[in-house]
Amino acid sequence: MPTSPLRRAALTAAALAGPVGFVTRAAWGLPVALGASRRRLRPTVAGSPQFTDGRFHNRLETPALPPASARKGLLRQMHEERHVGLPGGDIPLARPVLPEEAAELAVTWFGHASALLEIDGQRVLLDPVWSRRVSPSPVFGPTRLHEVPVPLDELPPVDAVLISHDHYDHLDLPTVRELLTSQSAPFVVPLGIGEHLRGWGVPDDRIVELDWDGSTTVGGLTLTCTEARHFSGRFFTRDTTLWASWAVSGPRHRVFFGGDTGYTPAFAELGARLGPFDLTLLPIGAYNDAWHAIHMDPEEAVRAHGDLGGRVLLPIHWATFNLAFHRWAEPVQRLMAAARSRAQVVVPLPGERIDVLDPPPLTDWWTAVGSAEDLPSRPDDAGVGSAVLARTFSRLIALLPD
Fold first, then answer.
1. Do 375 and 118 form a contact (C-beta atoms < 8 A)?
2. Which of 319, 335, 371, 372 could form a cystine bridge with 327, CB 3.0-4.6 A?
């Protein structure tokens, strides 16, 4: 019996319902999460010496993309080595005990680049990202490899929220919205990011935007926006907002926050001018030959720590999201080998609070976790498939890690 037009329409609708529903969920909230448009951003950034020809530039010549000949190999690597960056077991967490009064110098690392700094009796929240996924989409994007150690609304009052740049693993819309109600501190950000925040409901009186070498005072702290070697962008358009590292200086102590950056000789100049630093938080993960200029490897982090006149080094930008193709534990293993007799390193568990003036003995907890690539058979848990799609989606947009 021939199928009636009505039945054919119903069958077609049923066949499309799954894909259409998936696409709808993937795109939910996308325009808002992408942030401010180039048109909205331009008036706020055009006066910067770093901004020419419609975009921000690094002071040091920096390739924006891998050579065209390498991109096919990079896409193949995304497919073939997608499991490499997964941990071999559960990542242990610490539940931080945060004192009512901020310490002289302490830091709590929450994973990736998110940390709570206590310096000279004040608190600064660094690149807070509490979302499960670092992406504009609730469906695509790298997912967490461990839970958040503490709910955001359980943090004590902070004096400033410091942002390094606008990539999703450093500037997170849901986290910003929660901080709007749970905190009253200003967001101190590089040029252009204020326009993202305004679009998300952050009032002008809680936004401080700075160019490289600009500074602001919050309480007794001076926050200086310093050079980094990176890029920006939340979709196809790139480099419409500035990226930065930060120097946090109090009456008695100084801290350097690297955010996300490639190695640059500017670190030596920053160390001479703003250092030496009691603590440096420097990225050691998500490195690859294809984007070597904009992500440090562990050995370069040790070198940068020395350039900055750092005393204690806390590695960041590893462990929490699978953003590259190196083994999960490799960044910290390489860091420890490079830092031997050259730098004092602390490697807290996610959620662990460290007294920087009296750091605890170093405990090798990462070796027990290991890397999935080193197991006899690699796990294929439910998160891997979505992570593969997420990374492919993200890299096709950027052809570089977030």
1. no
2. 371
pLDDT digits 0-9 by tens, 188-212: 999 999 999 999 999 999 999 999 9
Among 125, 216, 133, 120, CA closest to 172: 133
Could you state, in order of their start, the residue ranges of all structural domains in the chain?
105-398
| Count of beta carbons in the 10 Å neighbourhood of residue 319 | 25
Whole-number Å distance between alpha carbons of 116 and 94: 14
Cis peptide before 361 (omega within 30 of 0): no
pLDDT digits (tens, 9 = 90+) for 114-163: 999 999 999 999 999 999 999 988 777 899 999 999 999 999 999 999 99
User: Would the CA dihedral through 169, 173, 178, 180 be positive or negative?
Assistant: positive
Instruction: Kindly report whether the global pTM for this prediction surpasses the value 0.90.
Output: no
140: helix, strand or coil: coil
Distance CA 76, CA 66 (A): 14
Q: What is the DSSP letter of 348?
A: P
CA distance 371 to 191: 38
Cα separation, 329 vs 87, in Å, equals: 7
- Which residues in 69-93 are b (16+ Cβ under 10 Å) and which e? eeeeebeebbeeebbbbbbbeebeb
Contact residues for 69 (Cβ-Cβ < 8 A; gap 6+) = none
Main-chain dihedrals φ then ψ at residue 188, nearest 5 degrees: -105, 120
CA distances from 151 to 128, 179, 261 (A): 12, 11, 28
Q: How do beta strands 114-119 and 105-111 pair?
A: antiparallel
Residues 6+ apart with CB under 8 A from 234: 33, 34, 35, 136, 166, 167, 168, 196
